[in-house]
Design goal:
373 residues, alpha+beta, six-stranded mixed beta sheet, five-stranded antiparallel beta sheet, 15 helices, globular, disordered C terminus
């Protein structure tokens, strides 16, 4: 059998060949040791939302083994290609078996301890009122290794997954604090928060729970008077979380979606996600207004809170491009990676495939039909 073209080398087959444990959730495979990475089983690409990297097998190996040199990556690809060209690799049913999520195994304690409270208050800038509201709604708890857990709750009020945030300063990671997703989490779900009781007709979408909480604190007065559903995607590529949250948490309040605010990070990946939604036809009409919210200070809402910034630049999604340019030109120098991303055209699409979003629209036309996507 002839050697396969590099683009034909299957990432899931490689994981089986390299004895990399992974679990399967629907059409995605998730390496157990790098839960922020996911591999589309049929379309054969990966995306790692924590670092906004994506690609095919070569890029996957480099992301999974960051210490590998270019030569080591190339050698690994060659070795796998030689094996894949000789015989079909059998994927292990055990490796493909989905890991079960266990909330009880995380040693959850509803009352936050001193380390957790210090992290939330001193490191993330949340005040006593905000922390009290989070505890009242059981939106953050502490568990093993003093980690914070942000539970994903389904419509039956059952915890089916969670974001995890470390509170101990690390020495080896590029991130000062560990951040990830609990193994076995149902990835169609995510963390969300109703800002107040009552009928809800507004949803605000964020990349992570800490940004949603920061936005809540900065806009507490408004959000207490007019309830809104704050949704954390857990990564900008997880659009199915948006659909699930609207169906399971906004609709039961008796509300109808009249305002959809995209409050993603003001960086290349966040802006790329908004641009993709716009290009796919997401826009306002007489029933629903779609806007983009841009932090006035920093790249995300928690950074704005920590830097004591206030306000947001609200832009109709139709006018989004010009607004991004305007906001970026006001940034202080030296320029950042985000500044460079605005000045230079982005040639790599944020979502390698748009069919995921098309599926999301098809499955939720009964709820989102008024958006005329």
């Amino acid at each position: 059998m002839a050697r396969l073209n590099e683009r034909e080398l299957n990432i899931v087959d490689y994981m089986a060949w390299a004895n990399i444990p992974y679990r399967v959730s629907g059409k995605w495979a998730w390496p157990v040791e790098h839960d922020s990475m996911r591999v589309h089983i049929d379309k054969n690409y990966f995306h790692r939302y924590s670092t906004d990297t994506w690609g095919h097998l070569r890029e996957f190996i480099q992301a999974y083994y960051p210490d590998y040199s270019t030569e080591m990556v190339a050698k690994t690809v060659d070795e796998f290609a030689a094996s894949a060209g000789k015989a079909e690799i059998k994927r292990s049913e055990i490796e493909r078996k989905q890991e079960k999520f266990s909330w009880s195994a995380l040693q959850i304690k509803s009352k936050l301890n001193t380390q957790a409270l210090t992290f939330l208050a001193k490191i993330r800038g949340f005040n006593a009122l905000t922390i009290a509201e989070l505890q009242k709604q059981k939106l953050v708890v502490v568990g093993q290794r003093n980690n914070l857990y942000f539970p994903w709750v389904n419509k039956e009020n059952k915890v089916v997954g969670a974001d995890v945030q470390g509170t101990t300063l690390t020495k080896t990671s590029k991130r000062p604090y560990f951040k990830g997703v609990v193994g076995g989490s149902q990835h169609a779900h995510g963390w969300s928060m109703l800002s107040a009781p009552g009928k809800c007709d507004r949803a605000v979408v964020f990349e992570g729970p800490l940004d949603a909480i920061a936005y809540y604190q900065m806009n507490r007065a408004e959000l207490t008077k007019a309830p809104a559903l704050l949704i954390s995607l857990g990564g900008v590529e997880k659009l199915d979380v948006l659909a699930t949250a609207l169906n399971e948490h906004l609709t039961p309040t008796g509300g109808h979606l009249k305002q959809l605010d995209l409050a993603l990070d003001n960086d290349e990946s966040g802006r790329g996600a908004v641009q993709t939604l716009k290009e796919k036809g997401l826009h306002s009409n007489e029933l629903t207004r779609v806007s983009v919210l841009i932090p006035q200070v920093g790249k995300d809402w928690n950074e704005q809170l920590l830097r004591q910034g206030v306000g947001a630049k609200e832009v109709a999604i139709a006018d989004f491009n010009q607004a991004v340019i305007d906001s970026e030109t006001k940034r202080p120098k030296p320029s950042t990676m985000a500044d460079t991303a605005v000045k230079q055209p982005v040639t790599t699409p944020f979502w390698p495939r748009l069919s995921d979003f098309e599926h999301f629209v098809t499955e939720n036309r009964n709820l989102l039909g008024r958006l005329q996507i």
